[in-house]
Amino acid sequence: MSGESMTVRLELFALARQRAGRGSLEMALPRGATVGHLRSNLAARVPELAGMLPHCMFAIDTQYAGDEAVIPAGALVACIPPVSGG
Amino acid sequence: MSGESMTVRLELFALARQRAGRGSLEMALPRGATVGHLRSNLAARVPELAGMLPHCMFAIDTQYAGDEAVIPAGALVACIPPVSGG
Amino acid sequence: MIALTDQPIDTAALLEQVASPSAGAVVLFLGTTREMTAGRRTTSLDYECYPQMAEKKLAELEAEARRRWPLTGCAIVHRLGRLEIAEASVAVAVSSPHRQEAFEAGKWLIDTLKERAQIWKKQKWADATSQWVHPGLDSANIGGVVPPAQP
Amino acid sequence: MIALTDQPIDTAALLEQVASPSAGAVVLFLGTTREMTAGRRTTSLDYECYPQMAEKKLAELEAEARRRWPLTGCAIVHRLGRLEIAEASVAVAVSSPHRQEAFEAGKWLIDTLKERAQIWKKQKWADATSQWVHPGLDSANIGGVVPPAQP
């Protein structure tokens, strides 16, 4: 991973949005960062989310992505808590 | 069974009504006659019904009744072909 | 609620009828007049019933469904007389706290109604023949095919 | 047809949408806002979604249902925003030549929508607390109970 950084926009929903007090965050991550990196950074930056993040999925540009997925620069990432529609 | 007779009104539906050319018949039956007697008399009186009667059920005063059931005087009997509602 | 009617079935009224603050699920089933049956075109259907027995049977079905499932609403309506293609001949609406019961009850009601209700349909085909439908009684000899009326 | 809407769901329009001369059966499922949940009174619900993913997911569900069953019509609508008791939050309407497929497809669609669509509800209780519903995430520590606002 190079020393350069990138900015990633993160969307938050439902309880995550409520806990964070906002619907989206800009996150500065090293280039080549993965969803796993974002997950750890987010828990550190917004401690109110730490308890629920292990239960959440993440999506990159509207596709679900595992912790090992590399986040492209400029990507839109979303945190998807367990769903309850219907 | 005594020699006295009684009159029974028989209701016909669907193909049975069409075959008989009418929606009801008055049938003179011996007192004590059963549904089985009525079934035979009907097949003889309206031969167009003979083929379908083995597939029909009968009801006395809106209750299904087997061939052994005795028909009370003044009863309303109905011939119920296989149903096709819905 | 049960009804036999010669008017078009009012589905909005049925949904209203089964609505309840205790309901989490509503299932509405409509049986509709299908144009093609085994490759033949139907132009209309005529339904008739034995009113006294059919009404009693529909009421029994409602009572039995309410015994078997914790329903918060149940309505069964069957239409009679002439129906054009795509019209609803029968409607079953049920509501319940959870959806599993509503699906089960709705399915059981229409399955059982079709087996037991004293109602019959006559199919009018595009070739101008018509035929009473009597399951198990469809052989040429005893079946109900009626040739078109001679001019 | 799929839709996410903040307007009341128009069930008559949905039934119209799935009607077809090839259909013999229509099944409409409505999920409605239930007043009592495990003995507690709900006063209203708020739904939100991730629009881009939820729309894509509903479209996938429709496509998958049409692959699995010979449907003549399929419509899925989910409501968003504030709902009062007994209002419909979701509607699934399907039609098919025969009823078995319509029941199966309707059941599968609502079951799968509830598991997969990126939609969330917040329950507002009669004691003025409210709570986002996140299955598997309901312990006191990480759950979403929000105390009533202080006057």
Write structural notes for this entry.
The complex is a heterotetramer, with two copies of chain A (86 residues) and two copies of chain C (151 residues). The radius of gyration of chain A is 12 Å and the shape is globular. Chain A has 86 residues and is of the alpha+beta class. In chain A, 21% of the residues lie in helices and 30% in strands. Chain C has helices at 11-18, 51-68, 99-116, and strands at residues 2-5, 25-32, 36-37, 40-49, 73-79, 81-84, 88-96, 119-125, 130-132. In chain C, strands 3, 4, 6, 8 and 9 form a five-stranded antiparallel β-sheet that branches. A four-stranded mixed β-sheet of chain C has the order 1-5-7-2, with helices on both faces. Classes of the chains: A alpha+beta (86), C alpha+beta (151).
As a whole number of angstroms, the C-alpha radius of gyration of chain C is: 17 Å
Find the count of extended strands of chain C (DSSP E, 2+ residues).
9
Distance between the termini of chain A: 42 Å
pLDDT averaged over residues of chain C: 92
**Class based on secondary structure composition and strand pairing of chain A:** alpha+beta
Strand content of chain C: 35-45%
Q: Mean of residue pLDDT of chain A?
A: 95
Number of helices of chain A: 2
Task: List its traits.
heterotetramer; A: 86 residues; alpha+beta; 5-stranded mixed beta sheet; C: 151 residues; 5-stranded antiparallel beta sheet; 4-stranded mixed beta sheet; 36% strand; elongated
